[in-house]
């Protein structure tokens, strides 16, 4: 049984079909990438998994249980946390408050404190800036807060939507390093990205979406050698 099993997923926005019969799997501890151009359906896929948008067809199961009629907050409670595109921080609140809000469904104070320490170890700059208003941080630092906030939910599966967008190259490298560390610590990750080179470098397997359909899937090593992927996504 896969940790996450998405089968024949179909999502529309009005009459516009965003996803058509998309199927993916994520196993425990895997780091899976989803590549594709703007408008391919990548963000829609993550929103469908986190149940923030309705489905028109297909099935979603997590640890063998259906997610089809589950509210978004119950998806978090079951072990899936979504770090959305654009970070979506509470800009007027401090770094610490933003992180603490990620644990809003949890009650065990000791475990919450331990996970906060985990975030500060992963992103040391956030320990230094914990009292600072989040809107005053750089784009890369705000992305660290967004990832940290998702981790405060203690997910078994972390959904990451375009974590490298709008980030300086130096911090971008730190973000991808942190994603690898999160995976090493035992959290499965499904990452949507346009940076194909970095995604193929860190992931186990990759799905490629175009026009709401899966056009390629396979191990990152195999897809890195695929001629179409090399020409269209790697520019070589």
Kindly list the characteristics that best describe this protein:
four-stranded antiparallel sheet; Rossmann fold; six-stranded mixed sheet; 236 residues; single chain; alpha/beta
Molecular structure report:
It is a single chain. Helix 3 runs parallel beside helix 6. The protein has helices at residues 42-49, 72-78, 95-101, 109-122, 124-128, 139-151, 169-184, 196-202, 220-224, 227-232, and strands spanning 4-13, 16-26, 31-35, 57-62, 65-66, 80-83, 157-161, 188-193, 205-210, 213-219. The mean pLDDT is 93. The chain is of the alpha/beta class and 236 residues long. It has ten helices and ten strands. It has a six-stranded mixed sheet, sandwiched between helices. It has a four-stranded antiparallel sheet with strand order 2-1-4-5, covered by helices on one side. It has a domain at 4-87 and 156-232: P-loop containing nucleotide triphosphate hydrolases (Rossmann fold).
Structural class: alpha/beta
Largest sheet: 6 strands, mixed
* DSSP strand content: 25-35%
Briefly note the CATH topology name of the domain at 4-87 and 156-232. Rossmann fold
Helix share bin: 25-40%
Q: Could you list the spans in which at least 5 consecutive residues all have pLDDT below 50?
A: none
CATH class of the domain at 4-87 and 156-232: Alpha Beta
Under CATH, the homologous superfamily of the domain at 4-87 and 156-232 reads P-loop containing nucleotide triphosphate hydrolases
Overall pLDDT, averaged?
93
Number of beta strands: 10
CATH architecture type of the domain at 4-87 and 156-232: 3-Layer(aba) Sandwich
Q: Would you list the SSEs in sequence order as H and E? A: EEEHEEHEHHHHEHEHEEHH
The helix count comes to 10
Q: Tell me, briefly, the overall form.
A: globular
